[in-house]
Write a structure and sequence with these properties.
alpha+beta; Phosphatase 2c, domain 1; 2 domains; five-stranded antiparallel sheet
Length: about 400
């Protein structure tokens, strides 16, 4: 009897140290894993990668009803392209938007791979790493033709030029393959924000050192240590024989309500992110009754906290938990009766439970920050402190244990 196989996966997406917005998206489903790296101005890259997540998530939700999975996988880039074309038709400033796509699905104990662009998938078995995708980029074509070395590729002026991408204008030529996997294998899916600054050997060493959740944090931290010049999205999965069902997780741009609002024709999965429509009224239609309640509550708040300047409140931030995850809140960490004086503005795929006990206590009380940038710094420090509690050899450990805020 054939042994059934399952994924056990974790993932994170980080804006990096240079970019202002995160154009990467990711998805961890029950059967699918996905990383997409968006591109294009006017926030179009964020929408392009979010579209990829929506299309694949909808495919997974209907997986049991699909008779020909290979045909559906083959059509994924075309379906995404069609949705991008529709988005561009509604706003011409989005012309030029596009996304990479690297997605895998574990179906009938076989790993199917669909790949467009230069996000990557790796298979790690018996402490050896093997790329199961190949960059569809100009720089990779030069390497294949022995025109430049791997070392020269790192500084080549056209190292970011893609030969294939899903852009709503041209038909992308996807790489589609089937890969044998066995229990004990590990998979890494990532955007080039990781692979441009972290070598395959370093990825291997980190994944071999940590279990899958810790490996995600360590890989992102390694990228940030090396400058974090781009958005970084990483998913690490273990292939296991015992039955396991992942909680659905949406990463990066596709997890942000502001991007979902701009794609009203698409459906997104309900994941473990505690962003719910009731906290974001723009995500659903608002009746006149709800409008009246909103106005009334706003008026009450204005009277009760009138001596606070709206501008001052908007500049207040703190880090706390939202459900099981870390989140950044804007406003005051207090409430007047049932009315909260803050709202969540960014959620992270970082479970509270992985933090040290002392930091969990700090989090429950709320950790104040003077700006959104400082709040993001605190989240990163909390993540680093959790990592250092298990392995103190990292160069940053001395700093992070002494202070949770920037010096």
């Amino acid at each position: 009897m054939t042994q059934s196989l399952y994924f056990r996966a974790a993932g994170r997406s980080d804006v990096g140290l240079v970019r202002e917005n995160n154009e990467d998206s990711g998805f961890i489903g029950k059967n699918f894993l996905l990383v997409a790296d968006g591109m294009g101005g006017h926030a179009a890259g964020e929408l392009a990668s979010s579209t990829a997540v929506s299309v694949v998530a909808q495919l997974e939700s209907n997986l049991d009803k699909i008779s020909d999975i290979d045909k559906k996988l083959f059509n994924i880039p075309s379906v995404i392209s069609k949705e991008l074309k529709n988005t561009i038709s509604k706003d011409s400033t989005r012309s030029g938007m596009g996304t990479t796509l690297t997605t895998v699905v574990l179906h009938d104990n076989s790993l199917r791979v669909v790949h467009v662009g230069d996000s990557r998938a790796y298979l790690i078995r018996e402490k050896q790493i093997k790329a199961i995708t190949k960059d569809q980029s100009y720089i990779q074509s030069l390497i294949d033709n022995n025109e430049i070395t791997l070392e020269e590729a790192k500084t080549h002026p056209q190292r970011s030029l893609l030969l294939q991408a899903i852009d709503g204008l041209t038909e992308a030529t996807a790489f589609i393959d089937s890969v044998e996997v066995i229990a004990g294998d590990k998979l890494v899916l990532c955007s080039d924000g990781l692979t441009n600054v972290v070598s395959d050997q370093e990825i291997l060493e980190i994944v071999n050192q940590f279990e899958y959740v810790g490996a995600v944090s360590a890989l992102i931290e390694k990228s940030l240590e090396n400058g974090g010049p781009d958005n970084i999205t990483v998913i690490v999965a273990e292939v296991v024989s015992e039955k396991y069902e992942n909680k659905i997780v949406v990463l990066g741009a596709a997890a942000e309500p502001r991007n979902r609002i701009k794609l009203p024709g698409l459906e997104f999965p309900t994941d473990i992110h505690p962003f719910i429509t009731s906290e974001f009224p723009a995500l659903k239609s608002v009746t006149w009754v709800k409008k009246f309640v909103y106005i009334f509550v706003s008026a009450v708040i204005a009277i009760l906290v009138g001596w606070y300047s709206t501008n001052w409140i908007s500049k207040q931030y703190y880090v706390s938990n939202l459900g099981d995850n870390l989140a950044i809140f804007q406003g005051l960490n207090s409430s007047i009766g049932p009315v909260s004086l803050s709202r969540p503005v960014q959620s992270f795929d970082l479970d509270v439970i992985v933090l040290t006990k002392a930091d969990q206590q700090l989090l429950r009380a709320g950790i104040g920050a003077d700006s959104l940038t400082e709040a993001r710094f605190i989240v990163r420090r909390l993540d680093q402190r959790a990592l250092c509690s298990k392995d103190y050899s990292y160069s940053f450990c001395k700093d992070v244990t002494s202070s949770i805020k920037p010096e």
